[in-house]
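Hi V.,

You were right to ask for the full record rather than a summary. Here it is.
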Amino acid sequence: MNLINKILGIKCIDCGPLEKATIIERITPLLIGLNIKYKSHYGGYNFIHYK
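Predicted structure:
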């Protein structure tokens, strides 16, 4: 994470254990498909934390 945080414009956050990665991996093809369909180059994840 320290290496990623040194890249300008990128913020790395710890999302928990590796088992959570499967959730993101399942959403990625949907996100890519939506970006292709709507010709967007900026679509991405937006995580919101509510307390």
